[in-house]
Amino acid sequence: MNDTRSLLVFSAHAADFVWRAGGAIALYASRGYRVRILCLSYGARGESQGAWKEPGMTLDRAKQIRRAESERAAGLLGADVRFFDAGDYPLRSSDALIEALVQEYRTVRPDIVLTHAYNDPYNPDHPAANRISLETRVYAQAEGYPLPGPALGAPPVFMFEPHQPEQCDFKPDVLLDVTSGWERKRQAMESMEAQKHLVEYYSDLSRRRGTQAVRNSGKKGITYAEAYQRVFPQVTGELA
Ligand SMILES: [Zn+2]
């Protein structure tokens, strides 16, 4: 019986997990969790602006570049990553994708799930990934779903912060202190050659969320934080 705890991360595109949840990934990997990232597409069409500036770029080449970057970033954060190549712009679900993801839930048996927010008017692939991740979690819980492995329990799901949270109706209810994982997140962000312009943006955001985390907790040692929103209510015997 494998009793390693695990974190499952859904990423619509090759880099989403780095910017939005890299701190959580580094933090939990350092705590001994198995962290598995499910990259539903490479984001080759919609989120590879840097790559498309190179002369003679093709879709296959853009995918290769994004895959290599994503693998490197996942390694820096201490996670493993699986690519599904389901396409971007649009990212679409399929029977094969759903089965593969249900099997991931049943095999990894995550203690925690991270995914995209419900809405994003700037990128329809992100809410598509949210829907797919939540639907397949429900299917994995069903005793009658015909795939190997016992039905899934009820791991909590946290949605990570979208690029423009107000437009996405995203309101954080969790601020995760990622100060101890920050150096690894910074390295992973800097390794994303095709989206260099985002490194400072997400560094500033993490510092602002860190300041808010101090304000909301009184814990002065927090410098960097990531914002999350819960999908399901917290179940607790302790109001804290
Ligand atoms: Zn994306």
Overview of the structural elements:
The chain has helices at 16-30, 49-52, 59-77, 95-108, 125-141, 182-190, 198-217; strands at residues 6-11, 34-39, 80-83, 112-115, 157-160, 174-177, 225-230. Strands 3-2-1-4-5-7-6 form a seven-stranded mixed beta sheet, sandwiched between helices. The two termini are 33 Å apart. The relative contact order is 0.18. The longest helix has 20 residues, at 198-217. It is α/β, with parallel strands linked by helices. Zinc ion binds at residues 12-13, 16, 43, 47, 123, 126. Zinc ion is lined by residues 12-13, 16, 43, 47, 123, 126.
Mass-distribution shape: globular
Average residue-wise pLDDT: 95
Which range does the strand content fall in?
5-15%
Summarize the amount of helix as a percent range: 40-55%
| Rg over CA atoms | 17 Å
- Main pleated sheet: 7 strands, mixed
Number of DSSP E strands: 7
Bound heterogens, unique: zinc ion
Query: What is the succession of H and E elements?
Result: EHEHHEHEHEEHHE
| Largest sheet: spatial strand order | 3-2-1-4-5-7-6
Sequence-ordered SSE layout with sheet pairings:
Layout: E1 6-11, H1 16-30, E2 34-39, H2 49-52, H3 59-77, E3 80-83, H4 95-108, E4 112-115, H5 125-141, E5 157-160, E6 174-177, H6 182-190, H7 198-217, E7 225-230
Parallel strand pairs: 1-2, 1-4, 2-3, 4-5
Antiparallel strand pairs: 5-7, 6-7
Helix pairs in contact: 1-3, 1-6, 3-6, 4-5
The structure holds zinc ion.
